[in-house]
Design a protein that fits this description.
Largest sheet: 5 strands, mixed
Shape: globular
CATH topology: Nucleotidyltransferase, domain 5
Number of strands: 5
CATH superfamily: Ribonuclease H-like superfamily/Ribonuclease H
CATH architecture: 2-Layer Sandwich
Strand content: 15-25%
Order of helices and strands: EEEHHEHEHHHH
Radius of gyration: 17 Å
Oligomer: single chain
CATH class: Alpha Beta
């Protein structure tokens, strides 16, 4: 199997995991980035207040997302980009919580995606003083990107995974996870609807 996956990164408007206000994606095929995209999202109602601390991190303001697609509107585009790929994110627990929580807040089905955390991969691949994305990306040879720009972060994450796979001699993400002893969990699949006999 080739080294195929999609790196993903979300930015949020506030402390709610459902408050997705931007997403970045980078598609990798056979160990090379072949597509990269990012767009703003209008966070779900009730989760759409922007906290100054979040704005200070990513620079996205309420007026920036007024005309952006809602979570409901953009989820099909997101799922189409991902396809059946394993998702990779730097601190994947955060990004998978955003994906799940935004779907739950809008009563949409959570995509049953498998995912891998590049922080866990980095800890097994590099000896570094910190495993923040800019430091790990630099170790992977990906320098000077706009940290906390969702598209730039997804691209940096993709480069980290490509470099880690080369270092480990892994040909795909499943083999990489096995070689490094990290898990590839799956987002919870909704319970099957009970059918009366």
């Amino acid at each position: 199997m080739p080294l195929d996956f999609t790196a993903i990164d979300f930015e949020t408007a506030n402390s709610s995991s459902a408050s997705a206000c931007a997403v970045g994606l980078a598609r990798v095929r056979d160990g090379r980035v072949v597509a990269s995209e990012g767009w703003l999202i209008r966070p779900p109602a009730g989760h759409d207040r922007f906290f100054e601390i979040n704005v200070g991190i990513h620079g996205i303001r309420p007026e920036d997302v007024v005309d952006a697609p809602t979570w409901q509107d953009q989820l099909p585009r997101l799922c189409e980009f991902i396809g059946d790929d394993v998702l990779v994110a730097h601190n994947a627990g955060f990004d998978m919580r955003v994906l799940r929580s935004a779907c739950e807040a809008t009563e949409l089905v959570v995509p049953p995606a498998r995912y891998l955390c590049s922080v866990q991969v980095a800890r097994k691949s590099y000896e570094l003083p910190s495993y923040r994305l800019p430091i790990v990306a630099a170790a992977a040879g990906h320098l000077d990107f706009a940290h906390h720009d969702a598209a730039a972060d997804a691209l940096a994450c993709a480069h980290v995974m490509i470099d880690a796979a080369q270092r480990a001699g892994a040909t795909d993400v499943v083999e990489l996870a096995m070689l490094l002893g990290v898990r590839i969990p799956q987002l919870p699949v909704p319970d099957a609807v009970a059918v009366a006999p």
